[in-house]
Amino acid sequence: PAEIHVDILLPIAVAGFVGNLVMFLILRALRLEHEHDAHDVHRDESHHSAILHTATDTGLSLVVIAVGVTYTLWPDDPWVIRADPIGSIAICLVLMYLARQMRKRLRAHH
Question: pTM here?
């Protein structure tokens, strides 16, 4: 397998986590602020999708950070090379589940 450069991976993953978390919190605050406005289903779904997207990116950044920390703590253990594919599979499963939920939600509104 290709070498994982943890010295590059971790700072980028942490920056992604912080940026996505800030955006998620801003979008959540805007949603709470506008909940009492007249409901526009399309706008509500678009906003919900944006919140879900940033929440997912925030969580997935944590998976990448966990993989990087695993490589840092146990660089010579043979099982560590499985951390990256396990993290990738976890990310794929979460994204497939959330896409399915979003599809169900959108179908319910049409």
Answer: 0.75
